[in-house]
Structure to design on (859 residues):
């Protein structure tokens, strides 16, 4: 959305984590345009449906291209954009419900392909726009409008999932640490392969987890979030799993494949064994 | 009098290798200058199960597979029993006397295909013996088949020198065996070879060729009968710089990927069949809403749900018209012949690029596998359109105009949001009633850009018309010709542009007392659509999983017209 658009009336609630994610995304894209001396229009933001999906309309400053598509389908759309136009930088903005529930089927295939896009997943454990139902990352027993007597499933460990399916860059951030998050997103965009930046982006209205994430010494609440040690080797997948084993919400880069081959390069390599023919040549091949 | 037409059916178990014989037999005849068309039907399994393939050879262009058989080649007793009733009077049944014992019924000819084939030293020459026998029955010079054999193995330096003489010997043995039997079906008239170049292929390949000519550069597909061969064709041929072809993980991924690709500037396509098409519903709505060009091929099979994966039907018309929820009306192009599959694919891309949205290319199983000869398309004369691209600066109001507006390409100024939600001119989400009215009307108004479709018509003064759609064109037109020959006063119409219909055609149809629509579905889907457009239309339906037979159509149309004239009102 450029400048002011009086017709667009969607607003995030005060204190929503998505404000911080927006700023971090803006900073990361801005850094990229400066470093690569590329126009902002070289970037495409593919958004899902939900509070987080409005990211694509709420970005401030110079406007990238955007798609505000279907619930759960950010990754297939991004597959199309990226493979039709490998020159573009494709960033996904999705929520935990969009990405990990209805869109779950699309995550593993991108990891297998190493689709060269960066997915920013805003996790607040609830479906905010539909007023607070629990998502896959909501914890066992959590009471929400759709689980009035407690959520009957355990929560999904998203970071473990990403590592297990072979995503080639897995990072974890929190919306309140904007500068760190911008760095994680920038690194994810620069990584030549399937990158996921999973962000704790609390919903202040339905499920405010700031206190649990940051801790509160006065109430004796230990912080869930902790910063990954500097000596962690992100190229070591076992070490990445060990980071997840420690529990809580680790912040930083868990895993980064140090020899990634992006999907577009694999396709180019496949094509070296093919013999391209023109339409005329193809038709002639059926001549009687 | 010489025969101008010859129909042979090969029936047996899947995996016996006769499907390639049938195609080879058809191909060989086209090389000799005849016209040929195949028709196959088989169960949904890898190998085995009752399978048959029919080949029709003619001195004239062929519209249908042929109602009755001159020759049935039966590979087992079950096949004989299943198909023998379709052999015409005076026809012949060929069977392998090594594996079947038949009573002498005066019309069956047993030949030891396998034994004779092996006697040439080639363990796999039985099919050649069979082809030689067929050639004798229709008094076809053996050179036609010998030439085919030479060409077929011309490029196999390792086996060719050995196999070619063996196969030619096998042909001669088959011919001799048939000649000794005394059976004959009359002489097939010499071919009237057309004076232009031809190709021999099936509907799915023709469609793929058309798409490539139209500029297709992005294909995403998921295996599903009977559309799989398009995916396989693309994987082999849509290669090189700037091309992308890929087997994705589902039809949901396929539709969303081509929408993303179309947004990025590609000419993108996917091909599927009923179940996959159902899964694409929401994505098609996105393409319509966000105004993104793409082509979706639905090769119809029997439905609903998993339905009849390997049988033909024309029951996805309603689904193609309104695949998605909300106010949506998707353009539909449905080819009627293998040849039209090529031109329909080009037209589908031209429409998609012109109105900036999804176009449904509605083919069907019977066309997809039918091998046929037709005039080689002259690519220089087949017009290809490209979308109007925005070339201004930033701050563009992508959806401002009341109809089609230039489309920006990512990487260039003009950034906007392609939005599945209702949106304002920038593409930002809106809920204003006036805006929803304006944008809904904008989307529908673009359909008027597509009202340039052509159509066929004959004997247009008749008050009653016959107008099939899609692959029922062949039997429909042959029935029309027989009705006219029988002095039935009936008009003929056909178009592959089903939505929007060409307005002049619609006007003509509205002037008819009755428009009869042969179509392969229970509900009479297309006539229902015509009625909604003010045409007095009714269907002649069939839902067996097989195409119409001409004789059935002639009878049913005649009966309906007779009843109409008697009653003066629709029955």
């Amino acid at each position: 959305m450029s400048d002011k658009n009086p017709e667009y009336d969607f607003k995030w609630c005060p204190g929503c984590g998505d404000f911080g994610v927006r700023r971090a995304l803006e900073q990361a894209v801005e850094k990229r345009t400066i470093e690569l001396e590329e126009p902002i229009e070289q970037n495409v933001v593919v958004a899902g449906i939900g509070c987080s999906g409005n990211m694509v309309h709420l970005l401030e400053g110079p406007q990238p291209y955007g798609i505000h598509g279907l619930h759960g389908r950010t990754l297939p759309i991004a597959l199309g954009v990226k493979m039709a136009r490998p020159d573009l930088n494709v960033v996904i903005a999705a929520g935990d419900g969009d990405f990990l529930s209805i869109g779950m089927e699309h995550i593993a295939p991108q990891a297998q392909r190493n689709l060269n896009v960066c997915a920013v997943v805003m996790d607040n454990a609830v479906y905010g726009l539909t007023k607070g139902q629990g998502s896959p990352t909501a914890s066992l027993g959590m009471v929400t409008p759709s689980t009035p007597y407690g959520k009957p499933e355990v929560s999904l460990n998203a970071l473990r999932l990403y590592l297990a399916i072979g995503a080639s860059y897995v990072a974890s951030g929190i919306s309140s640490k904007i500068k760190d998050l911008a760095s994680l997103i920038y690194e994810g965009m620069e990584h030549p392969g399937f990158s996921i930046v999973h962000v704790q982006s609390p919903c202040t209205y339905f499920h405010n987890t700031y206190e649990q994430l940051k801790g509160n010494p006065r109430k004796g609440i230990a912080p869930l979030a902790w910063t990954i040690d500097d000596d962690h080797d992100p190229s070591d997948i076992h070490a990445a799993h060990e980071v997840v084993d420690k529990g809580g919400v680790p912040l930083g880069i868990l895993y980064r494949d140090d020899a990634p081959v992006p999907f577009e390069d694999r396709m180019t390599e496949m094509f070296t064994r093919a013999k391209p023919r023109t339409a005329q040549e193809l038709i002639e091949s059926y001549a009687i | 009098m010489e025969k101008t037409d010859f129909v042979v059916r090969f029936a047996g178990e899947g995996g016996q290798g006769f499907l390639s014989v049938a195609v080879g037999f058809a191909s060989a005849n086209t090389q000799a200058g005849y016209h040929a068309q195949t028709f196959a039907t088989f169960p949904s399994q890898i190998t085995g199960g009752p399978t048959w393939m029919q080949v029709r050879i003619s001195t004239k262009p062929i519209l249908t597979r042929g109602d009755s058989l001159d020759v049935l080649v039966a590979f087992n007793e079950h096949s004989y029993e299943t198909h023998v009733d379709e052999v015409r009077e005076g026809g012949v049944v060929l069977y392998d006397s090594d594996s079947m014992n038949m009573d002498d019924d005066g019309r069956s000819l047993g030949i030891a295909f396998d034994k004779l084939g092996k006697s040439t030293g080639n363990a796999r020459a039985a099919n050649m013996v069979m082809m030689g026998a067929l050639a004798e029955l229709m008094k076809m010079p053996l050179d036609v088949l010998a030439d085919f054999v030479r060409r077929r193995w011309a490029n196999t330096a390792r086996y060719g020198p050995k196999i070619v003489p063996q196969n030619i010997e096998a042909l001669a043995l088959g011919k001799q065996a048939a000649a000794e039997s005394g059976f004959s079906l009359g002489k097939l008239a010499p071919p009237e070879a057309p004076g232009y170049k031809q190709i021999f292929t099936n509907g799915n390949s023709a469609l793929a060729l058309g798409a490539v000519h139209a500029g297709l550069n992005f294909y995403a597909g998921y295996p599903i009968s009977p559309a799989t061969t398009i995916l396989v064709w693309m994987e082999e041929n849509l290669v090189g710089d700037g091309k992308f072809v890929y087997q994705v993980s589902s039809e949901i991924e396929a539709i969303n990927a081509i929408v993303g690709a179309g947004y990025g500037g590609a000419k993108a396509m996917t091909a599927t069949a009923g179940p996959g098409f159902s899964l694409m519903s929401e994505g098609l709505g996105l393409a319509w809403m966000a105004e993104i060009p793409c082509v979706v091929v639905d090769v119809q099979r029997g439905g609903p749900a998993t339905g009849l994966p390997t049988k033909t039907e024309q029951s996805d018309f309603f689904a193609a018209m309104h695949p998605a929820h909300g106010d949506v009306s998707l353009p539909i192009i449905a080819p009627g012949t293998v040849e039209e599959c090529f031109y329909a694919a080009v037209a589908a891309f031209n429409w998609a690029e012109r109105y900036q949205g999804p176009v449904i290319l509605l083919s069907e199983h019977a066309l997809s596998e039918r091998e046929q000869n037709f005039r080689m398309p002259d690519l220089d004369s087949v017009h290809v359109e490209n979308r109007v691209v925005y070339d201004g600066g930033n701050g563009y109001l992508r959806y401002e105009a009341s109809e089609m507006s230039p489309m920006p390409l990512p990487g260039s100024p003009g950034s906007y949001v392609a939005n599945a939600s209702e949106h304002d001119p920038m593409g930002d989400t809106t809920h204003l009633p006036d805006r929803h009215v304006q944008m809904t009307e904008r989307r529908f108004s673009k359909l008027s850009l597509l009202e340039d479709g052509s159509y066929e018509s004959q004997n247009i003064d008749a008050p009653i018309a016959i107008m099939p759609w899609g692959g029922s064109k062949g039997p429909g037109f042959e029935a029309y010709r027989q009705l006219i020959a029988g002095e039935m006063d009936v008009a003929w119409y056909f178009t592959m542009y089903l939505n929007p219909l060409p307005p002049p055609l619609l006007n003509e149809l509205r002037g008819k007392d009755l428009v009869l629509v042969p179509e392969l579905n229970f509900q009479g889907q297309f006539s229902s659509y015509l009625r909604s457009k003010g045409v007095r239309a009714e269907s002649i339906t069939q839902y067996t999983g097989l195409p119409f037979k001409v004789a059935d159509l002639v009878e049913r149309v005649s009966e309906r017209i007779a009843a109409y004239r008697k009653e003066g009102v629709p029955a």
Observations:
- Chain A touches chain B through 56 residues (CB under 8 Å).
- The beta strands of chain A are 43-47, 65-68, 89-95, 118-123, 126-127, 133-134, 169-174, 195-200, 225-227, 249-256.
